[in-house]
Task: structure prediction
Amino acid sequence: MVLFNSPEQWQAFDKTHIWHPYTSLRDPLPTYPIVRTEGVYLELANGNRLVDAMSSWWSAIHGYNHPALVDAAAKQLNTMPHVMFGGIAHEPAAELCARLIDITPASLDYVFLADSGSIAVEVAMKMALQYWFSQGETQRRFFLSPRGGYHGDTLDAMSVSDPENGLHHMFASVLPKQLFADKPSIAFDEPWQDEALNSIKQQLATHSDQIAAVILEPIVQGVGAMNFYHPTYLQKLRHLCDENSVLLIFDEIATGFGRTGKLFAAEHSNVEPDIMCVGKALTGGMMTLAATLTNHQVADTISNGPIPNFMHGPTFMGNPLACACANASIELLINQDWQSEANRIENKLRLGLSPLSDHDAVKAVRTLGAIGVVEMRHSVDVAKAQAFFVDKGVWIRPFGTLIYVMPPYIISDDQLNQISDAISRYVLQTTC
Ligand SMILES: Cc1ncc(COP(=O)(O)O)c(C=O)c1O
Result:
């Protein structure tokens, strides 16, 4: 049965019946019909190709349809696309967890495979709570986060995301109440000052016996702020958490797998968290998959507690197809000089975007690893900006005041120039 006789028909259906991320059904933002992907390109229904500067929200680090990933998926698809993880073990999951234990901070030896980033954050929070409840410390129910963070869209993940930046404000009255400290204020490359820790130090000192864990995105606060902060912040925070006997959770869902110029952003500080979440680029953008890792102390305490089971188990946990893609993606990444690619992208984006910092409409320009950010003084009109960028042959989706890009690592210098050029033209035609 043919449901739609033309692209216009399915687009019209999409517009009237389908919610897209963070949009209204009544007054939807325009959507662009994509019919094919290849390398760094998204192909529109009209045959035009766009250079994807977003890596499909940080995930497609090797570009699209990479033969190594497609082969791995096809092989797994023919053998065992899915099987439940309850009471069943399989090699793709074992291989993946061994790889994750190998490449993440040394103390992280235990893995829970989740099905999306938000769920990995939920799992991390439940692990921290169960760690304390197992020791009878049932008053440790709160999480402490710096403002400016973003950890996902499920209720608990929302509760530790920035309480005021707009995404989740409507739900404030029903979200679990958490504790917040000032946003990390010293930039990645500014001189460090200890005062930057005053607020989080104060919160820890006042509430330490009620806090299960501090949760934050290491080095790069992503969607919430695109804030690149100083590595010393994490070193000092690790000490503060130890002094106050509070667990430390790193959300590396956006920053992981080379995006910031280190394999994991925590490596900028040489700090190990007690619990760490990864997702997004884990499968190279092929499938949805995330993971929560932890250390002996947390795993042993939970396992020796009055309820030794860790009570979480999504239906698609450890999906073999996703694990096979993740295995292929990690292999591909670590067997190439990804660090040089991240440096090349950083240099090129800095060269292309930094002249914009003089423009009146621009508040700041930042680059780190394979991430470039132009922070505007006023909110960007997403529909208008996207139409502008599509016309220039690039795919960029601004958010709030932020025009940000994190292209696939295979992007060429010419394609990076095309991205910077499109952003520059957009900014130059903007009035304050
Ligand atoms: C740092 C961080 N944590 C968690 C999430 C949520 O991941 P997902 O969208 O896969 O649920 C995101 C998504 O953007 C993120 O950037």
